Amino acid sequence: MNWLKRAKQGIKTWRKRDIPDGLWEKCPSCGEILYRKELIKLLSVCPKCRYHFRIDAFTYIGILTDRNSFTEMDAGLVSGDPLGFRDSRKYRDRVKDARRKTGMNSAIATGTARLDGRKVVLAVMNFGFMGGSMGSVVGEKITRAARRAVQERIPLIIVSSSGGARMQESILSLMQMAKTSAAIALVSNNAIPYISIITNPTTGGVAASFAFQGDVIIAEPKALIGFAGPRVIRETVGEELPEGFQRSEFLLEHGMIDMIRSRQELKGVLGFVLDSLMRGAATRVKEEHREHDRTTISLIR
Amino acid sequence: MGVRMLEFESPVYELEGRIEKLKRGGCSESSSEVARLEERLQDLERRIYRDLSPWDRVLLARHPQRPTTRDYISMICDDFLELHGDRCFGDDTAIIGGIARIEEKRLMVVGHEKGRNTKEKIRRNFGMARPEGFRKTLRLMRMAEKYSLPIVSFIDTPGAYPGVGAEERGQSRAIAENLKEIFDIATPVVVVIIGEGGSGGALALAVGDRVLMLENAVYSVISPEGCAAILWKSKERAPDAAASLRLTARDCLECGVVDTVIEELHGASHRDPEGNAAVVKRELLAFIKELEDLPADVLLGARREKYFSIGYFEGKGI
Ligand SMILES: [Zn+2]
Q: In chain A, is it the N or the C terminus that has fewer CB atoms within a 10 Å radius of its CB?
């Protein structure tokens, strides 16, 4: 039996080397063998089981925005090694490798763009860059993106995928949770809509900060979302975790997210939400926060 | 209850034992000897507790006799009335909160509580909070704002609890909500890191206008054991990880993460709990005084700017 036939029969015994490099892709969820070019046309979503393959930040930006409308901000920010982190490999070398591998300077791309004509600030994380971990650069870029949204009074969209805070910047990484939260609070107080899109996987410090601070929170199907990673929880409770634990569907059932949408549906949903919320946002700035945010208000003008 | 000590502390306790013995003997020629030994003891404390490795500080921060939030409340406050529950699901005993009086001043006090003996530790879940704990904290902080009570927050936790129920009930959301809401709570917030500042579970209570840290407390994004398991695939390397993580009070001060380091009397706070509590009390009252007359917009604006300015990066700016 040749391998294509076996795949059609749904025999799930494929090892990585069975699949010719580059041309075909195997769905890690249902085992379906997919023609790569076809898969890309489907925005890297398995047509059989809706599994969402991981895609890089700029591919995601391409999906959500109008052609050539994305203007990147702060692309030049790169990580230093503020703590002189001692490890089996130098932190600077790890960053260098990640930059070479991804073609990005950090684990996030931020900028302004148009979504079916609407101007937005968009930030998309890249899991391929050191597991999408949040250090000072990610924190700073999110903060600047949020402030830009407030200045221009346009909505903010953040697409998260991250293993959490970046260990190599230790306490400074932890503080980025507070810093980004301060930025989102500012957005919220100015009645600027913030939509959080959570993709696979989003855990730790990113889940416990801006990813769960959206006015509307949308998750991709079957994404792993949680504070603690499954391995840590398994070790703590000493038993196997329930089926589907910490997946998008589980979070929806527990009331933690607003909806699950596939990549193909996102743009339409975002458009409707933004249109609806921006109507009010155009006129309304909470009076009490007009007081608090004098400095910001002056920036708006 | 016998004295529990760490290995590097034993010379201090040995010498203390000798002094006690001499004192009990009570003969006249021993009093000059006692004075001499007490001087030596001071010197020994300085030497032993001042030049500790980061890992030693971790051990001190987790010391079985280190004063916990409850101890500080009872030593600092003239009155304390605990308030319970998150009004949603339950009361998380890993976090204590309530209204306190120090002299004529009224405050809202919150903090992680690890518990002292085994039974108490289990009841307190070793200070590892679940979503209910963070929600209770937020409830009390909002109440504090409403009635213009300054907030004092004591930090002492290994981290938020990694359990199935905690995840089901939205651990991420609970922490995220606290982190965002604190930037709108228009009343002074003074944070004191008294023991372990473990990751997001600590941070959820640790955002404030002034952050104080005790000399032997530690504060980091991940436990040394967790870090060692990831980087070196071995928890045995925790002492190395502790050094890499730069988790000591001095390090945090250098990074701009804390505003003041409080020196611990007699080398470590468990050696003189009352004395240390008096210093903490003095410091936090001074900070509250400095903050309490600020207009709300100035207070909140400064709080936000404080956190906006934390971080280190290179490369082109705007
Ligand atoms: Zn599939």
A: C
Q: Please tell me which of the candidates A76, A184, A227 has its beta carbon nearest to residue B172.
A: A227
From the CA of A30, how far away is ligand 1's center (Å)?
A: 4
What fold does the segment set B56-308 form as a domain? 2-enoyl-CoA Hydratase; Chain A, domain 1 (3.90.226)
- Which chain A residues touch B235 with a CB distance below 8 Å? none
Q: Which of A172, A173, A195 is nearest to A184 (CA)?
A: A195
Which CA distances in Å does A83 have to A117, A136, B229, B251? 44, 12, 20, 9
Residue A210, CA distances (Å) to B128, B180, B257 in order = 22, 9, 20
pLDDT tens-digit series, residues B119-157: 999 999 999 999 999 999 999 999 999 999 999 999 999
Residue A127 CA to ligand 1 centre (angstroms): 20
> What ipTM, to 2 d.p.?
0.95
Distance from CA of B21 to the nearest CA of A (A): 45
pTM over 0.90: yes
Domain that holds residue A5: 1-53
**Number of folded domains in chain A?**
2
Q: Is A210 on the interface with B (CB under 8 A)?
A: yes
Query: What's the rounded Cα separation, in Å, for the pair B72 and A264?
Result: 55
* B311 contacts A176? CB cut-off 8 A: yes
**Domain end marker among A53, A80, A96:** A53
Interface with chain B: mutation pick from A83, A133, A190, A227, highest number of B CBs within 10 Å: A227
